[in-house]
Structures are given as C-alpha cells and as structure tokens.
Amino acid sequence: MSEIVDQINHIHREVGSREVPDGEARTVLLRRTYDAAIEDVWDACTDPERISRWFLPVSGDLKLGGHYQLTGNAGGEILRCEPPRLLAVSWLFGENPGFSEVEVRLTAEGEERTVFELEHVAVVPPEMWDQFGPGAVGVGWDGALLGLALHLTGEGAPADPEAWAASDEAREFMTRSSERWGAAYQVSGAPADVAAATTRATTEFYVPAR
Known about the structure:
Layout: H1 3-6, E1 12-20, E2 23-34, H2 38-46, H3 48-54, E3 58-60, E4 67-70, E5 75-82, E6 86-90, E7 100-108, E8 114-122, H4 126-132, H5 135-152, H6 161-165, H7 168-187, H8 192-206
C-alpha cells in the first residue's frame, strides 16, 4: 500500500441524521489529526492562496457574512468564523440545492498537533441517498483531507491532478474510501445489504471499469 492510500486509515468516519428547518438532514463526520500547529491548519483552511494549493481556487468576499465560490464546485455564505477553531459555511451546488452546511472544527493537541473535524449536514434527495449513501460526499471529503495532509507536510498536490485521478493509486484510494464509508454507514444502523449496495454504487461511480 502506498503512503497516499494509507492516508485512508488516518480518518475516523461517522454517519448520522439531524433535524433541520428543511426536514431530516443526513450527516457525515470526518476526524483526523495533523502534525501541524492549529494556527497553521487554520491558515491553510482560510487563506485563499493556500486553499487553491490543496483544494480548489476560491473567490468572493471571504469574511463573516460574505459569500464564497469554489471554482467548478460549491459556493455559499460564511456563517461562522471563530479563529483559529471554527468555520461554518453554507455549501450550495447546482440548482435548488436545498439545505447544506459544512462546519470545520479545530482543536489543538499540543503545540504541533491539531485535531481536525469536518461535518457536512445536508438534506439529501431520498433517491440519491438510497443509491449512494454517505459515500456520495464522503469520498470527495476523504480526497480533500488527503490534499490538506499533503499540503501541511510540504509534499503538495500531484503535479497533474487529472492524470493522478486516473492512476491505479487514486483508484485504490477511492475504492478504499468507498468501503470505509460503507462500513461507517452500517455502524450507524444501516442493514448490511443496504450498506453493501451503496458501497458498490459509490465505487462504480468514482472508479468506473476501464
């Protein structure tokens, strides 16, 4: 197993649900520890130039109450910003996206270690959840946490992200990510056959047959 694929094992995953004004929302939670000071992790998650190096280019009025837009991805409003520990944003993509929010929580664990938590809460169309379960967004967030890990260690993202995404290493990473989300879904109470079916669908989406 490569060091990049092994990053999958550094993440704790939880799946749940929560009532929000728009109805029942699904939740996915990722938690891992980075060997970096909390100020460094906070800066990596909030400085536009650094965000573009490990995630996606971002534009907008990046302050409390302002709006942001990730190139080719989600946009929304900055709902809470409490440096260096808490950032919450609405996470809206496509037409009529419905309720969707992401919260990042940082906790210092000594001077050079930081516990990173990301929780995504969204009202998901039942047909999408029934088909893909938590892996639909979970695999993408695993990739984001991998990007942040490489950035914080100075290794940086692959020189050609598109080529890497098609590599055997990336395919193994996404396959293992999908499997881990299926396991977390089952732990949350999903029947084994339902968790297995959503894992297959998620893997086929992210890792199509060649």
